[in-house]
Every structure is written in C-alpha cells, then in structure tokens.
Amino acid sequence: MAVYKRAYAGYSGAHTPPWARFLVLARYAAGDVFRSRFFTTMYAMCFIPFLVEATMVYIAHSQTAQAVLRLSQENLLQIGADFFLICMGIQAWFGFLTAAWIGPTLVSPDLTNGALPLYLSRPFSRREYVIGKGTVLIGLLSLLVWVPVLLLFLLNLSLAPKAWFAQNYWMAGSIVASGLLWAVFFCLLSLALSAWVRWRVVATLLTFMIFMLPTGFGKILNLILRTGWGNLLDFFYLVQRVAMWLFRFRDAREEMAIGFGQPIPAPIALLALVIIMTACLLLLNRRLRAREVVRG
C-alpha cells in the first residue's frame, strides 16, 4: 500500500488481556490436534468404557433392569471407592496413549522449524508458552481421565440413597485430585520429551520406553533384593499408589495388590513424582531458549 494514500491504520480491535495470552497458543494448538481425523476418532472411542460403566451404575440401582437381566442381589455390582478407582485406572491408560500421540506434536515442530524465536519475540514469555501448550494436553487428559469418573460419581449420587452421599462425599475430591495428578504428570513428561526429541515417531516410542523399561528394571531389583523400593522406577505404580491413598485404601490387602513386597509409602511416592515433574520442568526451561537461526 502506498504511503501517500494514508489509507492504512493500526489495529483498533480488542486486545487479549495479559493473563489470558497463553490461551491463544492453546486455541491454535487444539485446532491443529483435532485437524487429524484419526486422532478425533481415536479420542471419541476412548469414551466407550465410560458408557459401559455408566450402564453398570444404572443397572446397580434399577430393579427393572435387574429383573430383565435376571440378576440376583449377590451378583450386583457394589459401587464404592474400588469401582471408581478401577474406572480411573482404565481411563488413565487411554490418557497415556493420548499423551504419547499428542505430546510430540506440541513443542518439537516449533524447535525443528525455528519458530520459537517468533513466539518469544511477541508478548509471550517461556512460562506462558509452556502453559499454553500444556493447557491443551492437560485439558484433553482431564476430559478423558477424571471428568468421566466424576460424572459416574454424580450419576451414582443421583440414583443412590441420600445416606450414600453423606458417607462417600469425599470421593469427589479424590477423583479430581488423582485425575489432575495423572494429567499433569503425563503432560510435563510428554512436553519434556517433545522438546528434546525432534522426530515424532522417536518421541512416541521413547514415551513408551520411559514407562516400560524402568518398570522392568524395578521389578528385577525387587526380585534380587527382595524389596519393594524398586517400584520407585515404575511411574504407573507411583501414581496409582498416591491414588489409592487418596481413595483411603489403607489395609494390607489392597496395598500389596499393586506391588511386590512391602508397598512404598504414599508420601514417598508423591515426593518421587514431584521430583520427576520438577526435572521435566528444568529440561523444558533449558531447551526452550530463543536462538538466532541462520540459514545459508
């Protein structure tokens, strides 16, 4: 546009508040994620277990459904903390697959194509960049892991006697807390791998290896040393151990069901998870630095 025409003007629209700038990154990242039909289909299929579990909750409280299916009182499902914990574990596995698929696509393309300096040259800090990218993954994992289980809790609450809520109201907080722990842990680990591994296939395979290989070494240590401290290398065990503590499983039978030998104390498992997540943040902070890109 020629300057002499003086028809140009600056942007006069509404500005995004500084506290919400990270949502711009989240919005575009979410759009890129759901542009894939394969992922959209896979993500929708992850809610099939929730529909099955909701049906089970309804049957447990419907005498008509029980009569049609010819179920006796001995065969009825008991809805309690163990049921919601199992549902959480099922959804967490789908969350792990989702994180392994999405995580490598969030940060590595920006580093590979030299786009990070373009982000940080605008009013975005590295913290806002990480929060913007992580919001997408944490949001998708939350919708997949703990939101369906919380809906199951509310469904059971609407069907069960009023006395059930007075005895089990605390489970709502346990569902949210354990689900957020799964989501944040998967998110930070996936983002750290995405920042340090540029190839998506390699990053996805490395995600599986990080969860599988240390678990195998931990079990070998348990067998050789006849201890349970090798489970510190089992990330699934650590999160599950904290989740069981949040769901108030204290007796020896439930504790020994999730590990070999003596169970790791829940505070120690939580401390190990905090250390791992802190290490992921340090790796992200070291990697996400704007560098001048010179192409010859």
What descriptive keywords fit this protein?
single chain, 296 residues, mainly alpha, disordered C terminus
Folded structure, characterized:
Helix 5 packs antiparallel against helix 8 (about 125-160). The chain is globular and about 80 Å long. It has one domain (about 20-285). The relative contact order is 0.11. It is mostly helical and about 300 residues long. About 70% of the residues lie in helices and about 0% in strands. It has helices at about 20-35, 35-45, 50-60, 65-70, 80-100, 110, 115-120, 125-160, 160-170, 170-195, 200-225, 235-245, 250-255, 265-285. The longest helix has about 35 residues, at about 125-160.
Question: How is this fold's topology laid out?
Answer:
Layout (H helix, E strand, L loop, with lengths): L21 H12 L3 H9 L2 H14 L1 H7 L11 H22 L5 H5 L3 H5 L5 H34 L2 H7 L1 H27 L3 H26 L9 H12 L5 H5 L9 H22 L9
Instruction: Please give the count of helices.
Output: 14
Shape verdict: globular
**Based on DSSP secondary structure assignment, what is the total number of beta strands?**
0
Structural Rg:
23 Å
Seen as an oligomer or otherwise, the chain set is single chain
Major beta-sheet overview: none
